[in-house]
Amino acid sequence: MNDRPIKVMVVDDQDLVRDGIAMILDGQPDIEVVAQAVDGADAIRQAAAILDLAVVLMDVRMPVMDGLEATRQLAGGPRVLILTTFDLDEYVYDALRAGASGFLLKRSSRDELINAVRVIAAGDALLAPPVTRRLIDRFADTRLDPAVAARIDVLTAREREVLVLVAKGNSNAEVADELHLTEHTVKTHVSRMLAKLGLRDRVQAVILAYDAGLVTAGQR
Prior knowledge:
By secondary structure, this protein is of the alpha/beta class. The chain has ten helices and five strands, in the order βαβαβαβαβαααααα. Keywords: DNA-binding, Phosphoprotein, Transcription, Transcription regulation.
């Protein structure tokens, strides 16, 4: 068992927001805020010098370098959790495509913030289905990429069914209920699906499903 705290960086150009988030997280025994950055460029510089940085909480609109470009440059490193408000939906979608592992609304509660960091650090993706559906419905129509469709051919029929349901924002429990499977079996299908497609998490699976046209905006 790993008892080391989750190392976190908070990136936001507003001092009060950044300090407030850092204070909440630092109060948890399993979380340590090791850095704060005022923009994306600052985040990139600091991240390069921090060993075992696990999660970066990233604002989107910032001077010098925005959160989208910073997320893209951090790909393959610490996992990025986007901090956003509803009016930033388009930026969030782009950030997810750039490699972010999820997003959190700035109006979220203290407990939701703490849970989000733990979820992302554990290697899972943070998908809030209602917000995810709103994002996809608004922007997916203009982002379909037929070239991606061929990647889906490696999946079995069951894995394809699971991917479609995940892309619609369903939890593992909801997928299990829909397909009359156990939740454990669904988790196995999700893991195999991600491995075959070379994806890191469920967020990337959702993006790929829409890019491939496997699911379309407005579909439920």
